[in-house]
Write a structure and sequence with these properties.
It is built from 4 helices and 23 strands. It is mainly beta. The protein folds into 2 domains: about 35 residues; about 450 residues, Porin, CATH 2.40.160.100. The strands form 3 sheets. The chain has an 18-stranded antiparallel beta barrel. The chain is globular, with a radius of gyration of 24 Å.
């Protein structure tokens, strides 16, 4: 692997020198650096990934109950991948300013049929395409302003993080290479450990499900050099055609779909993380998030939050880290006229961030669910990491939409078959996930994982039988220059 990498670097270096794009001395140190002169730097970027995935009893084999005519295959395997080439520059604009920018594209695709019955798909889309101006003084106040498509995350990614969509017609469902927003306007300014960011964002969504959501807001963050932080994000949805599901009165009947209900949503999110002790307890950490949402136009008041505690045993062999978190997101109470459904917006949905469970996160959005989650991570070597995760997932409201009310079932009420949304028991699922990661070299990373999701009584209440366990595994390799 190392020899192949060195061969590719040598070829790229010789080609760049031959074209006169980079001095020989500079290229020998960094082949991706095209120009490195006083006042100007131009750099190439390249990222690629390939992922092999296998799933058995997808979505607990619900397709056999709710859509038998669709011939959905609940046992499937597929191969997905992507390429992301790019180029960036930084140029001095006087003594204390710099102009910078980046241009990159994603080409992605899927062979076989993925978890959402899509296959043989792929697309090429713009990822980064921004220009910016920033101050370069080493001390004192600073600012940074940029316009154009780029990644942006507010806080811990509870609401604002994943600006790009993958899967379906774009392919690469699991790898999810797109993270940049379709459009951003960012203004950062601050001093020392305090940064304030004003933002405008428009998500890069799939063409046939583009909600047209545009959000403006601000984030104020205090962060120290040792990684402790605290902050507050506020935001307002300027426009959107995204609908909300609403529980039927008393929970009896299918959910009511409210068109364009996201339009006018406001939110506030407080977050923080600290290591409060020194000495023998220095490895202890605690973090938390709390979010509140409101929209007077539809009488919405919703909330969500998380608490995390953990300990890093740095003095022990393999440096184990154990952590517990509890996260919860309100659901619509069918006994009230108010809307209480939490809108997760564009949260960072991976096991290290804000997914609810592992496999279950493909079924449940962060709305009307809560989860107790435990993780144990060990590092046998500097290059190898093993992580074991467990999640116990429950509903917050019975007979109320979970996600968008899929699995609306018939129940017998006063002798009459009646459609009911949501679940009849709070216990949704238990997920177990084992992951192995290896740093092959500074630019190449391997990850493999196996997982199982065991349905709870809440999911069994939809099918009136014991649903099968949902199993899966994957192996992927990511290259990043």
């Amino acid at each position: 692997m190392g020899n192949m990498r060195d061969g590719r670097r040598t070829t790229a270096t010789l080609l760049a020198i031959g074209l006169g794009l980079v001095p020989a001395a500079a290229s020998a140190q960094d082949p991706m650096l095209l120009i490195d002169e006083p006042g100007l730097e131009v750099r190439l970027h390249f990222q690629a990934g390939v992922n092999v995935v296998a799933e058995q009893n997808l979505f607990w084999n619900f397709a056999d109950t709710f859509a038998p005519e669709a011939n959905f295959d609940s046992d499937t395997r597929w191969l997905e991948g992507y390429l992301m080439p790019g180029i960036s520059f930084t140029a001095d604009a006087g003594d204390l300013l710099a102009i910078y920018g980046k241009l990159s594209f994603v080409a992605s695709g899927t062979l076989g049929t993925d978890a959402f019955d899509a296959g043989g798909t792929g697309a090429i889309t713009l990822e980064d395409g921004y220009l910016g101006l920033r101050s370069t003084a080493e001390t004192g106040p600073f600012f940074d302003i940029s316009l154009g498509p780029r990644p942006f995350k507010a806080g811990t990614g509870m609401l604002i993080a994943n600006g790009g969509s993958s899967g379906f017609e774009r392919g690469a469902l699991k790898l999810g290479p797109r993270t940049a927003w379709e459009q951003t306007a960012l203004l950062r300014f601050g001093q020392d450990d305090v940064t304030a960011t004003a933002f405008f964002i428009d998500a890069n969504e799939l063409s046939d499900t583009d909600s047209g959501t545009k959000i403006a807001g601000g984030d104020l963050r205090y962060e120290t050099d040792d990684g402790q932080y605290g902050g507050l994000t506020i935001g307002h949805v300027l426009e959107s055609n995204s609908p909300y599901p609403r529980a039927a009165d008393g929970g009896i009947g299918p959910p009511v779909i409210m068109p364009g209900a996201r339009d006018g949503l406001s939110f506030v999110n407080a977050y923080g993380r600290t290591q409060p002790f020194d000495g023998a307890m220095a490895g202890f950490f605690i973090g938390g998030d709390l979010a509140y949402q409101w929209n007077p136009e539809i009488d919405l008041q919703a909330w969500g939050g998380r608490i995390q505690i953990g300990y890093v045993f740095e003095e022990l062999s393999w440096a184990p880290t154990i952590a517990y978190s509890y996260q919860t997101f309100s659901g619509d109470d069918p006994s009230t006229s108010r809307v209480e459904r939490f809108d997760p917006l564009y949260y960072e949905g991976n096991p290290n961030a804000w997914s609810t469970g592992t496999k279950s996160s493909m079924m449940f959005l962060n709305s009307n669910v809560n989860a107790h989650q435990l993780s144990l991570q060990v590092r046998p070597t500097e290059a190898d990491t093993w992580t074991l995760r467990y999640a116990h997932i429950r509903a917050n409201e019975l007979n109320s939409p979970i996600q968008f009310g899929q699995g609306t079932r018939l129940d017998i009420i006063d002798g009459t078959p009646t459609p009911i949304a949501g679940v009849g028991d709070y216990h949704l699922a238990d997920d177990v996930y084992l992951e192995y990661s290896r740093v092959i070299n500074p630019n190449t990373f391997l990850t493999a994982g196996v997982s199982i999701s065991i349905p709870g009584k809440g999911m069994d209440s939809l099918t009136k039988e014991n649903s099968p366990n949902w199993l899966g595994g994957f192996v992927n390799v990511i290259v990043n220059f």
